[in-house]
Amino acid sequence: MSAQRPTATAHQLVTCLWFTGQAEEAARLYVEAFSGYRPDTYVGAVHRSNIDVAPQGETLLERGEVLTVDFTLDGQRFVALNGSTEPVPYTDAVSFQVLCANQQEIDHFWTALAAGGGQEVACGWLTDRYGVRWQVVPQVLLELLAGEDQDAAARVQSAMMRMGKFSIEGLMDAAKDAYGAEEE
Fold it and tell me: Where in the numbering of this chain does the PhnB-like domain appear (predicted)?
């Protein structure tokens, strides 16, 4: 007996991620990465195809193979879809931002999401092994960039642009003024 898909309400957005046979694997990787740090994170229903799916004669899925996986990361619903036999590339135009409270969270999410072939990009961005783009960002960065001292914000932005994975210590050092006092 398979679990029923939760009913979406009229005001709910659900992100659908497209995969080439790895929908369940990807959903489980993401849930594993988030579950220790974010509440309301889980794999929901795994839906299997009721028919052989063969658009234009090419078999995409055989009956019984995973079609979609419902999963939730920190309360945000997603659907992973096995939608093609050929990879459809993700681009930098869409990414998921993970706000982190401290360096331990940054290190955890960075390692978990880059595992198994992910790639560091720049400025807190990485691409996971499926090509999905992530931004692993310390909350303090947003606060430093929005601070009243525009010189400090400029130093922080300059430091940020030189980083791959963010270092909170490096960002805080950049926020210090020329005399070593931290900016308020």
Answer: 12-137
Is the pLDDT score of 60 beyond 90? no
Strands 133-138 and 125-127: antiparallel
Under DSSP, the state recorded for 48 is: E
CATH class assigned to 96-175: alpha beta
Instruction: Output the pTM of the full model.
Output: 0.86
Helices marked H in the chain — which ranges?
23-35, 103-114, 139-145, 150-161, 168-175
- The residue assigned the tokens 């300059």 is 158
List pLDDT tens digits, range 119-172.
999 999 999 999 999 999 999 999 999 999 999 999 999 999 999 999 999 999
Structure tokens at 76: 């945000």
What pLDDT score was predicted for residue 7? 57
Burial class (CB in 10 A: 0-12, 13-18, 19+), 7: exposed
**Residue 57 one-letter amino acid:** G
What would the mean pLDDT of 59-72 be, rounded to a whole number?
93
User: In terms of Cα–Cα distance, which of 103, 89, 99, 82 is closest to 134?
Assistant: 99
d(CA 89, CA 68): 18
Location of each CATH 3.10.180.10 domain in the chain: 15-82, 96-175
Give the pLDDT confidence score for residue 4 in this predicted structure: 54
